[in-house]
């Protein structure tokens, strides 16, 4: 579904990604972890060309994201992106955020779009907040609306860039619940997160990144105990003892 | 001081007419200039959005010229300078069709456009890049992202400064008296020179200016309160 | 155009001096600087009054500022023209009228800048001063104002630029500044108004652009420094 082939990226003199390779198959859930500055956010941003790369290739469903002639807007409709800062459109209501894409990009009429929007909001448990403005919603609610907004476009893949890092602790649970539900339904997902509990429960594989490279890959079950993944262990230990979210 | 304050003398018959014409001319000048200013301001904003450096320089030069040269001097250039560059028939047409009003309106409109363009630009810049990214991530192209997400928010932010510009434009119409446009200040001086009742005449004009100015300022605070959006 | 400049540069620069009063660009700058300097105490007084907890101070000050903001400058100039001879007791020339009008006008606008500067200071500053036992006036003059004024320096330079542009209204009351000088040149030459006023525009442009660039430079340097109030450039 998504394939990284030797991806390189520099921000000026600093190398953010160094020869990153990997694959995410259909229906799989991969979780990227690592210290801040490790390149994990940069990596998933390359999938929809929110960041451009200087070396290697990023393929989405066989299409090279960086090639000329790629309809990037079409592609972005097929790949959902959920930001750390939610980025809801403050001038539109919750359902307005969702129906914008449906009416302007998918050509749905208002009634159809609203119906679909309500369905997506119901899926994340917020149907009754449809006409609220984002300013009146809590952080957790906003993020769930953001997830619904991406889902409404019928994506084949969902990317999550630290979706819970900006939330107060009591709201993290509701967002993770929505994400778990999504994973269970068979959605292909790549998540950048610090929530190791979530990762253990849901991930098919965890990628540990540092300094722009994927240092270790492992199934969650392998996380406990083995010395083969020592760098990852050290990182996990530091976060488990109350290390700050990056 | 032994001076009798006599408002009636100034507000009667012919003089009242002059005041009324003065107010009407001031308002007409404000409206015409404002329309020109908004259109030009939007055009400048659109030109700025085209990623060609020479166009960017043009807009920057336009803005800097209108901000650094006094408005009165701009009016003098339009009234005295520009017609001398035009062919005779054009000059005659201008003179026959309320030349001074037209030229003053053009000068005022183009000057305000510079500030309006800057206000809109500030509005756009204050929208976090993340909003643009979020719109593009759903699949909107550049135009869609700007048109449906960035600009609607930018305009809300730009409205209070734009109302302030309107206030400034209104006050600046008084400069047109220097080239003989019969707006309120000009008419006030006429009344004053005919009646010799300086205080009364200027008092009337002052009250009129203040009433309209306060009206615009009130509109400004009202819109400031109503348009606030919580971000994120 | 160059020719006109060559022949008349002295007039643009100093007006009719020595065959008349000093005018031209010299007078423009002199009037702007004088007006701004003289209005300073009034501007500070107005700003403090607007921030005062006493209604009898705050309301009149607010009324004054709003009234000045609501009237065109030219109306002020005419008011000054007619009122000053009565108050001072003698005829008042164009230059003096203009300066007096500008003092009143600028005091109101400058007071708004100073008020923004004061309000932009972190509350901790006043709290710290109070904790040391400083009372109102020493706090204001030694702690609040120095910082507020430093933070608002770019805005004040901006206001100076506005004042320079406002002196051009001397043309209407025959005050001897550079716009009036240009009109005199034009009245002599008659056939090249565009060039004459073009030179005038260029003069203002160079002067004001240089000062505005200075303001932006100061803003860049101070905003990374003390971490005070955000730069509020007052459009003029």
UniProtKB/TrEMBL annotation, chain C:
**CDD domains, sorted:** TM_PBP2 (cd06261)
Residue ranges spanning the membrane: these are: 20-49, 61-82, 196-218
Keyword Transport assigned: yes
Swiss-Prot/TrEMBL GO biological process terms: amino acid transport
Q: Where in the cell is it found?
A: Cell inner membrane; Cell membrane
GO molecular-function term, one example from the UniProt record: transmembrane transporter activity
**Which Pfam family, giving just one, matches this sequence?**
BPD_transp_1
Q: Which InterPro entries match?
A: AA_ABC_transptr_permease_3TM (IPR010065), ArtM/GltK/GlnP/TcyL/YhdX-like (IPR043429), MetI-like (IPR000515), MetI-like_sf (IPR035906)
Keywords carried by this UniProt record: Cell membrane, Membrane, Transmembrane, Transmembrane helix, Transport
Record's signal peptide:
none
The membrane topology noted for this protein in its Swiss-Prot or TrEMBL record is: Multi-pass membrane protein
Q: Which GO terms describe its cellular component?
A: ATP-binding cassette (ABC) transporter complex
Q: Where is the ABC transmembrane type-1 domain?
A: 25-215
Q: Which family does it belong to?
A: Belongs to the binding-protein-dependent transport system permease family. HisMQ subfamily.
- This one is known as Amino acid ABC transporter permease
Q: Which organism is it from?
A: Bosea vaviloviae
């Amino acid at each position: 579904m998504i394939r990284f082939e030797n991806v390189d990226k520099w921000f000026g003199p600093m190398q953010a990604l160094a020869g990153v390779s990997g694959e995410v198959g259909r229906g799989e859930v991969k979780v990227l972890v690592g210290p801040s500055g490790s390149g994990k956010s940069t990596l998933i941003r390359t999938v929809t060309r929110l960041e451009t790369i200087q070396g290697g290739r990023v393929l989405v469903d066989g299409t090279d994201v960086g090639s000329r002639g790629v309809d990037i807007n079409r592609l972005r409709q097929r790949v959902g992106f959920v930001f750390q800062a939610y980025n809801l459109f403050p001038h539109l209501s919750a359902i307005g955020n969702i129906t914008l894409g449906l009416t302007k990009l998918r050509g749905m009429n208002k009634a159809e779009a609203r119906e679909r929007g309500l369905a997506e909001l119901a899926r994340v448990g917020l149907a009754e907040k449809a006409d609220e403005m984002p300013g009146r919603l809590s952080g957790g609610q906003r993020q769930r609306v953001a997830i619904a907004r991406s889902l409404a476009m019928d994506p084949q893949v969902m990317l999550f860039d630290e979706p819970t890092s900006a939330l107060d602790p009591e709201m993290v649970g509701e967002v993770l619940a929505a994400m778990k539900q999504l994973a269970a339904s068979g959605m292909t997902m790549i998540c950048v997160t610090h929530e190791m509990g979530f990762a253990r429960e849901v991930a098919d594989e965890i990628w540990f990144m540092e300094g722009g490279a994927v240092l270790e890959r492992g199934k969650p079950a392998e996380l406990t105990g083995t010395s083969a993944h020592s760098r990852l262990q050290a990182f996990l230990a530091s976060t488990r003892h109350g290390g700050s979210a990056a | 001081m032994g001076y009798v304050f006599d408002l009636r003398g100034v507000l009667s018959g012919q003089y009242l007419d002059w005041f009324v014409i003065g107010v009407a001319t001031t308002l007409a000048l404000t409206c015409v200039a404002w329309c020109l200013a908004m259109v030009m301001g939007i055009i400048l904003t659109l030109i700025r959005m085209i990623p060609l450096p020479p166009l960017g320089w043009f807009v920057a030069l336009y803005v800097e010229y209108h901000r650094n040269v006094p408005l009165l001097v701009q009016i003098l250039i339009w009234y005295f300078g520009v017609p001398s560059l035009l062919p005779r028939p054009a000059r005659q047409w201008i003179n026959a069709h309320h030349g001074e009003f037209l030229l003053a309106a053009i000068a005022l409109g183009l000057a305000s456009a510079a500030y309006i363009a800057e206000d809109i630009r500030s509005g756009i810049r204050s929208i976090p890049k993340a909003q643009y990214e979020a719109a593009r991530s759903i699949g909107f192209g550049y135009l869609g992202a700007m048109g449906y997400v960035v600009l609607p928010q930018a305009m809300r932010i730009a409205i209070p400064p734009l109302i302030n510009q309107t206030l400034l434009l209104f006050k600046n119409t008084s400069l047109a008296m220097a080239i003989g446009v019969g707006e309120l200040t000009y008419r006030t001086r006429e009344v004053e020179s005919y009646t010799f009742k300086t205080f009364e005449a200027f008092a009337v004009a002052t009250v009129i200016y203040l009433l309209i100015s306060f009206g615009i300022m009130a509109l400004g605070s009202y819109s400031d309160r109503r348009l606030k959006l919580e971000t994120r | 155009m160059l020719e006109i400049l060559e022949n008349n540069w002295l007039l643009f620069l100093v007006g009719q001096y020595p065959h008349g009063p000093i005018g031209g660009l010299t007078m423009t700058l002199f009037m702007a600087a004088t007006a701004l300097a003289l209005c300073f105490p009034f501007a500070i007084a107005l700003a403090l009054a607007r921030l005062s907890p006493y209604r009898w101070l705050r309301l009149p000050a607010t009324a004054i500022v709003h009234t000045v903001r609501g009237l065109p400058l030219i109306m002020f100039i005419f008011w000054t023209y007619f009122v000053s001879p009565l108050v001072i007791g003698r005829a008042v020339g164009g230059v003096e009228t203009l300066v007096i009008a500008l003092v009143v006008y600028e005091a109101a606008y400058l007071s708004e800048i100073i008020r923004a500067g004061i309000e932009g200071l972190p509350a901790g500053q006043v709290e710290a001063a109070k904790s040391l036992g400083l009372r109102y006036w020493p706090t204001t003059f030694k702690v609040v104002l120095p910082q507020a004024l430093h933070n608002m320096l770019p805005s004040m330079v901006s206001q100076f630029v506005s004042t320079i542009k406002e002196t051009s209204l001397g043309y209407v009351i025959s005050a001897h500044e550079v716009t009036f000088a240009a009109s005199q040149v034009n009245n002599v030459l008659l056939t090249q108004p565009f060039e004459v006023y073009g030179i005038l525009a260029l003069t203002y442009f160079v002067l004001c652009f240089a000062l505005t660039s200075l303001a932006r430079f100061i803003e860049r340097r101070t905003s990374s420094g003390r971490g005070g109030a955000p730069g509020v450039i007052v459009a003029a």
